[in-house]
Write a structure and sequence with these properties.
Blueprint: H1 2-7, E1 10-14, H2 19-30, E2 34-39, H3 42-56, E3 60-64, H4 70-82, E4 85-90, H5 106-134, E5 137-142, H6 155-175, E6 180-185, H7 193-197, H8 205-209, H9 213-222, E7 229-230, H10 234-246, H11 249-271
Parallel strand pairs: 1-2, 1-4, 2-3, 4-5, 5-6, 6-7
Length: 272
């Protein structure tokens, strides 16, 4: 009940149809929160909502929305007036296959920037106001370890996640004295659909690097009120620290570029 008192009675979870977002919804429902699940795939959301209601006796709300569009963002923002939301999970995001920046279609750059930056920033702005009025609540933003360094061949993705990391950490400081807990989750490789989307081969060594999505989600939720930034996994923590403090920026940028080029060349060779 202490968790519900602090972050309930409702949570809004974007990108809830799969991966970390789905596991966030499951974990939060098990703690007694009612859940509004947000994504583009209505059937998946309805199935998840049914599971949560049956397993935990909570209420759910299903909202089909594309957060890369103004209409989708407004649909989710409207819930701030309709429900007493104590926790916002900004999980929805998109990546792209590993390609040089100039080969990305402008439409993809725009969609990624809107979904990974503008949508979470807008929802934070909207939901913070009633939370501040109640002097309680929480926000979890899902960034990435990619936020900690420039990443050739996924330059726009890493840049959007760096924005979310810095925005979240700054706002966490602003609202800390007002009873609001803000966590920025920076996962590394995780067992989600996005791994296949970017073109990584999940066999062999790559498979061993993937963290279970439920474990990643749980660490972020457990950090509410305790930590502002969560990097799940020791290897990911060490990599982030090296990128920020120990390794020259130019050197690590060249190393990442070379590593990704070798990975793509190997995957292309295996597929031929």
């Amino acid at each position: 009940m202490a968790f519900v008192d602090a972050y309930g009675p409702w949570a809004v979870v974007t990108g809830a149809s799969s991966g970390i977002g789905r596991e966030m919804a499951i974990d939060l429902a098990s703690r007694g929160l009612n859940i509004a699940v947000i994504a583009r795939r209505t059937k998946r959301l309805e199935a998840l909502a049914g599971e949560l209601e049956a397993a935990h006796g909570i209420e759910t709300r299903v909202v089909t929305a594309d957060l890369a569009t103004d209409d989708g963002v407004q649909r989710v923002a409207a819930l701030a007036d309709e429900l007493p939301v104590g926790l916002l999970v900004n999980n929805a995001g998109i990546s792209a296959p590993f390609v040089p920046f100039h080969e990305l279609p402008l439409e993809t750059i725009s969609q990624m920037s809107r979904l990974n930056m503008l949508a979470p920033a807008t929802l934070m702005h909207v939901y913070l106001k009633p939370m501040l009025a109640r002097r309680r609540g929480g926000i979890i933003n899902v960034a990435s370890t990619a936020a900690y360094q420039p990443m050739p061949l996924m330059a726009n993705y890493a840049a959007t996640k760096a924005y979310l990391l810095n925005l979240g950490d700054a706002v966490a400081q602003e609202v800390a004295s007002h009873g609001i807990d803000l966590v920025t989750l920076c996962p590394g490789p995780t067992e989600t659909e996005i791994v296949g989307h970017v073109g990584l081969d999940t066999d062999g060594a790559m498979q061993k690097m993937l963290m279970p999505a439920d474990r990643v989600a749980r660490q972020a939720i457990d950090a509410l009120g305790r930590r502002r930034i969560v990097i799940p996994g020791l290897t990911n923590k060490v990599s982030a620290i090296m990128a920020q403090r120990l390794v020259p920026r130019g050197w690590i940028t060249r190393m990442i570029h070379a590593t990704l080029r070798r990975t793509l060349a190997k995957d292309a060779g295996d597929a031929s």
